[in-house]
Design goal:
With 205 residues, the protein is mostly helical. 38% of the residues lie in helices and 2% in strands. The protein contains seven helices and two strands; from the N terminus they run H-H-H-H-H-E-H-H-E. The longest helix is centred in the first third of the chain and has 17 residues.
Length: 205
């Protein structure tokens, strides 16, 4: 997990949140995602992130008590919560306790013999469930939203009437995981244009 990217870490967290909140007799009223481990890739980047990298990108899934903000949740504060019974630390990771949310649908073509990877096509039902879960748990931090809005205003304001499709062609490790990533550039362009038209978009970046 430590060498995985942001979205892989996010989907592991969503898998845990869904499992704990929906399939167990859970009395928990609040959750705290802890990405402070120094092995997480973001801690080694060129820019300084929050001590808890989750807080760099997202609000905590369910708000913490008003007496302590995200930045104020020190080790001492957490230890005090544990001593008075307000904190339950969960250190289990992955299967059999919980699965990665989505089970790699849309990220892996399926048919792999790798443990824990189901994969396959991302159908409308799975996409709808993904939207529901994201709306339930994920709230992007306001400074990041403002930065994205600023980029959009500066970059796309010259094209106010276009509907954009953002495309990220994954290579590196995904060349082995997904055969379609090995397509030549002409085929990738053809597929992108077809998908863009199917969504009613008229521009790509």
């Amino acid at each position: 997990i430590w060498t995985e990217g942001l979205f892989s870490l996010l989907f592991w967290s969503l898998g845990w949140l869904q499992e704990v909140s929906e399939t167990r007799d859970c009395q928990v009223q609040q959750f705290l995602i802890d990405w402070t481990d120094r092995r997480i890739l973001f801690h080694g980047s060129h820019r300084r992130c929050c001590d808890n990298v989750w807080n760099e990108f997202f609000e905590q899934p369910i708000c913490l008590p008003q007496t302590a903000s995200h930045e104020q949740m020190t080790v001492e504060t957490l230890e005090a919560c544990g001593e008075n019974g307000q904190l339950q630390v969960v250190v289990r990771f992955g299967t059999p306790w919980f699965k990665k949310f989505g089970e790699f649908k849309g990220a892996d073509e399926g048919g792999s013999h790798a443990t824990g990877i189901k994969g396959g096509r991302l159908d409308e039902r799975a996409a709808g469930e993904g939207r529901r879960v994201m709306r339930r748990w994920i709230k992007v931090r306001q400074p990041l939203l403002e930065k994205a809005q600023s980029w959009r205003d500066q970059t796309l304001q010259a094209f106010p009437n276009l509907r954009w499709l953002a495309v990220h062609i994954r290579r590196t490790d995904k060349l082995d995981q997904c055969r379609s990533n090995r397509w030549e550039q002409t085929e990738l362009c053809s597929q992108t244009i077809a998908f863009c038209r199917a969504l009613g978009c008229n521009a790509v970046f």
